[in-house]
Specification:
The chain is an alpha+beta fold and 151 residues long. It has one domain: Glutaredoxin (3-Layer(aba) Sandwich). It is built from 4 helices and 9 strands. Strands 4-3-7-6-5-8-9 form a 7-stranded mixed β-sheet, sandwiched between helices. The chain is globular. The termini are far apart.
Length: 151
């Protein structure tokens, strides 16, 4: 297993990450999550669409709340061929409540409450990633910033 040091900090202290990051052109790994209606979700079931994948720890934190609201706003201008997923450790009930209160309707929130599996997924997708319709990674954190900021 690959170990990467000093790429992420928590409260100013570097963290050791275990696992490899996705690269542009690499096939996005399949994963399972839980939708707000408690149905199972698999990434491999979404075919032929560009996917924007955003992973946050909790929708009930100010930074993650703001980020997902921005993605929701931007999703309306991305067209019908783009599908925006937001994955968090929140339970589906909490996600559904948050989406209703925040008026978020243009992104699909998914739950990965298992902390270890969520962290592994978060590292692979490097916080934000987008995949092409063929399931290949087409940008990572820095390349996706324009989707997030609108620049």
């Amino acid at each position: 297993m690959t170990k990467v040091k000093n790429t992420v900090k928590f409260k100013g202290n570097p963290l050791m990450l275990v696992g490899s990051r996705l690269s542009v052109g690499e096939k996005a790994p399949d994963f399972e999550a839980i939708a707000n209606d408690l149905s199972p979700f698999k990434l491999s079931e979404i075919k032929g669409k560009v996917l924007v994948i955003c992973s946050v720890h909790s929708l009930d934190t100010s930074v993650c709340d703001t980020e997902v609201r921005k993605f929701n706003e931007r999703a309306t201008s991305l067209g019908n061929d783009v599908y925006v997923l937001v994955i968090s450790m929140d339970l589906p009930f909490a996600q559904k409540r948050w989406c209703g209160a925040a008026g978020v309707k243009n992104v699909q929130t998914l739950s990965r409450p298992q902390a270890g599996k969520f962290r592994q997924l978060l590292r692979r997708f490097d916080k934000r990633a987008a995949t092409s319709g063929s399931g290949r990674v087409c940008c990572g954190q820095k390349g996706c910033d324009s989707l997030h900021t609108g620049r």
